């Protein structure tokens, strides 16, 4: 769901808040997931995998293929995906229900292995995110997040990292301040 290169995130996202509500594909994602905090490893991995696969495509394409991704990647189970071998790569590259791109498939497997390592170093993926959410006493900015992600994961450039973090509330801009989803996000953060 990358913003046009010339548009600041907040300005572009206000447009998403205008078009997504009521849309059969974007609406449910906008209203109940985008910008909402998530803590479950498989949900975080799914979001990262979907954002990586969106590169070069529309977010609607990815949302329409979401169930295909879920089936192809074993429900986004990190341990299962981390153990994929050549037969699994071949299966994924032949699966028309997902995006068949070798670099993206390889990134999914590699990133699942990285997430396994984050369990040992930080307690898990969400704990790693939380541990890096601030820098020098202030919320970490996008540039710093992108550098961290590029040094940690594969296929995580600026747009992918920015969207991933915005979709989870680690970066601002998922919704305009007056969007009704903001009330639900505030409730989710409280408890």
UniProtKB/TrEMBL annotation:
Q: What is its EC number?
A: 3.2.2.20
* Keyword Metal-binding found: no
Q: Where is the signal peptide?
A: none
- Family matches, as Gene3D superfamilies: Hypothetical protein, domain 2
Q: Name one Pfam family in it.
A: Adenine_glyco
The lineage's top-level taxon is Bacteria
User: What GO MF terms are annotated?
Assistant: DNA-3-methyladenine glycosylase activity
Q: Which UniProt keywords apply?
A: Glycosidase, Hydrolase
Q: Which InterPro entries match?
A: Adenine_glyco (IPR005019), DNA-3mA_glycosylase (IPR052891), DNA_glycosylase (IPR011257)
The identity of this protein, by name, is DNA-3-methyladenine glycosylase I
Give the source species: Luteimonas terrae
